[in-house]
Specification:
It is built from 13 helices and 6 strands. Helix 4 packs antiparallel against helix 5. The chain is an alpha/beta fold.
């Protein structure tokens, strides 16, 4: 059977195809991005990012676009394919990393493992092995993760707040020496003036981010974006509404967490439970 030729010449990659269709429909209508924003009531820059493939937007804006262009259900169907495309996860994380490098402040919530910015090499290696990494990629990933710590080590490091679920401090590496080194490093960084570390103890019960690790970035243009992830996928969230919803959940949880002083004592108490290697 002969190979099927592309009919439209457009991308077969779902996210790119969605962006291309948005650009095609707008230019065919003769609208500028600003005109589109004024007519639909959304910030025009959102449409620009959607057409560049930087974000896919939310279902509400896509439905409004479908109605505006007279394409009932078409754009929403392309949007559903774009958001479920597994190949986009690494690309979204690469974009998050690029944004992180320019962030003016950062705040994280860790639900099960320490954030990469706070990991020691030994701890990072165990986390990555558990995630299925093998050599030589394993060592490359550990080195890349350690390279990220420069962000917090520099003189002009951005303010960084992290809330650790107690689960993080109870989920230990197999190697006690690795765990001791990691906890000592946590205590050390918690003393830095620009780093605020808090622990969310089991006793607070259920909360709005029970199963969701989230990272927030404040960008130079005063926007805030979020990256949410679980064991299987991650998602860069840039739309104002969803980001604000996540921030409210984070703020409510922060109010339940131990103070920075109490949290440091908590980490030290965990450290005291780690057996020391006896030197003979």
């Amino acid at each position: 059977m002969p190979t099927r030729r592309a009919v439209t010449g457009r991308s077969r990659e779902p996210r790119a195809r969605f962006a291309e269709e948005l650009r095609h429909l707008r230019t065919e209508r003769g609208d500028s991005l600003r005109q589109l924003g004024e007519r639909l009531g959304w910030d025009w820059s959102l449409f620009g990012k959607m057409e560049k493939g930087e974000t896919v937007g939310g279902p509400e804006v896509v439905q409004a676009l479908d109605q505006h262009y007279g394409t009932p259900g078409l754009l929403l169907a392309l949007w559903e394919l774009a958001v479920s495309d597994q190949t986009q996860f690494k690309e979204r994380y690469r974009r998050y990393m690029a944004l992180e490098a320019d962030a003016t402040s950062l705040w994280h919530f860790a639900v099960s493992v320490l954030p990469g910015l706070l990991q020691t090499p030994g701890y990072a290696r165990e986390v990555l092995v558990a995630g299925g990494f093998h050599e030589p990629e394993l060592t490359q990933q550990v080195e890349a993760r350690m390279g990220r710590r420069v962000l917090l080590d520099s003189v002009d490091a951005p303010p960084f707040r992290v809330i650790l679920s107690e689960v993080v401090l109870r989920t230990t590496p197999r190697d006690a020496a690795v765990w001791r080194e990691q906890l000592e490093y946590l205590v050390s960084v918690s003393e830095r003036p620009k780093i605020t570390l808090q622990v969310l103890p089991f006793s607070v019960g259920m909360h709005g981010l029970d199963s969701t690790a989230v990272k927030f970035l404040r960008l130079p243009d005063s926007r805030t974006v979020a990256y949410v992830e679980n064991a299987y996928r991650g998602e860069l969230v840039e739309e104002h509404g969803p980001v604000e919803h996540l921030q409210r959940a984070y703020d409510a949880m922060r109010d339940l967490a131990l103070s920075p002083v109490e949290s440091r004592k908590f980490v030290l108490s965990i450290l005291e439970e780690v057996p020391c290697d006896l030197v003979t």
